Amino acid sequence: MFSPRVPVDRQPNRLAAAAARARSEKRTLIDLTVTNPTVVGIEYPPRLLEALAGPAARIYEPVPLGLPAAREAVARDYARRGRDVPPAQIVLTASTSEAYSLLFKLLCRPSGDAVMVPVPSYPLFDHLTRLDGVEPVPYRLEYHGRWQADLASVDNQWSDRVRAVLAVSPNNPTGSLLTCSELDALDERCAAAGATLIIDEVFADYPLHPGEDRGGPAAHAPRSFNALTFHLGGLSKSAGLPQVKLGWMAVEGPDALVREALDRLELICDTYLSVSTPVQAAARSLIEVGETVRPQILARVTANYNALASQVSQHSAVELLHADAGWSAVCRVPSTQSEEELVLALMEQDSVLLHPGFFFDFPHEAFLVVSLLPGPDEFLHGIRCVMERAGG
């Protein structure tokens, strides 16, 4: 009766089941997996959502690619980061996840075409591709003091079925930014094969080492793309507002391809019309909220990253893998037990919840992924428990 796009096995894994039990028992957990900025003590303007009730929200105007004023607000936000994108080349979506789905519909035939996905990376890609009938083809990120795209694995995995390359910069969870040379290499490969480059930049506003130039998104502002290219962003991360559901795509590349892509996307978006009028009418105000929320989040993740580095420095068996930006960090720990057993012990015996590396398809044991969003005291206490149990 049901489509195979939804996995047959939907049972929670051992860690999720154990966490659910702990919460049902009213145990207090130190959550080092949290990705919701609205629950970690960040201060938001008291009248944050008033703009959603403005008079413009009462008038429904079904514009498939987004209301002009909202697209102009997004274009101004790109200008803040040093990139000049015309409002006409911006497409509004309800979320970054929806942006991926729209692009898979635009680019891929179901049950045949493929997109290249970086690993390690966010496991949501498995579901997003499967739900649209697209095959994910992995290419590796390798760590040699810094993370870098393994271009040989891109070439080895490439086939005529590849319609797009997904590049997440900063990556989640590795925190790695593409260098200019890596971006150029992916652009050249996509252009030569008639494929598309999709760059997810949702964490671009959170550099962990200010002043260090890794060749992040802003560094690419003056360049021209040879391939049709989509840059993804949204309020969820840039303004710490996951609840208002506004994402976007900026389209760049050869003029003819950009025009054709926008024309086709207009039909797709007109079919769904998913972005609510109130959030579009309030887009400028909500984007401006980022001016007060973003510095708080950046200060939080930077302080926690530095605290993590300090704790790791006291345990020679543990290594903090360098992250350029984002809300997460990765530690490599001794393989004295499986990642799963380690994180279960931390939760059941220390009440500390964190992610094992295999959730993100790390190539081998043993890695732990921690969120940098928790409050500083809670974060430090949790990390000390992790170091004592994992680092000896």
Describe the structure in your own words:
- An 8-stranded mixed beta sheet has the order 2-9-8-7-6-3-4-5. A 4-stranded antiparallel beta sheet has the order 10-11-14-13, covered by helices on one side.
- It has 392 residues and is α/β, with parallel strands linked by helices.
- Helix 1 (14-24) packs parallel to helix 11 (339-350), helix 3 crosses helix 8 (255-272) and helix 10 (283-312) packs parallel to helix 12 (376-390).
- The protein is built from 12 helices and 14 strands.
- The protein has 2 domains: 14-43 and 290-390, Aspartate Aminotransferase, domain 1, CATH 3.90.1150; 56-288, Aspartate Aminotransferase, domain 2, CATH 3.40.640.10.
- The radius of gyration is 21 Å and the shape is globular.
CATH architecture of the largest domain: 3-Layer(aba) Sandwich
Backbone structural class: alpha/beta
Overall average residue pLDDT: 94
End-to-end span in angstroms? 52 Å
| Percent in strands | 15-25%
Tally of contiguous helical segments: 12
How would you characterize the largest beta sheet?
Answer: 8 strands, mixed
Strand order of the largest sheet: 2-9-8-7-6-3-4-5
Helix content: 25-40%
The counted number of beta strands is: 14
pLDDT < 50 stretches: 216-221
Instruction: Supply Rg.
Output: 21 Å
Oligomer: single chain
- The dominant shape is globular
CATH superfamily of the largest domain: Type I PLP-dependent aspartate aminotransferase-like (Major domain)
SSE ordering: HEHEHEHEEHEHEEHEHHHEEHEEEH
Per CATH, what is the topology of the largest domain? Aspartate Aminotransferase, domain 2
- How many separate domains make up the residues? 2
CATH level 1 class label of the largest domain: Alpha Beta
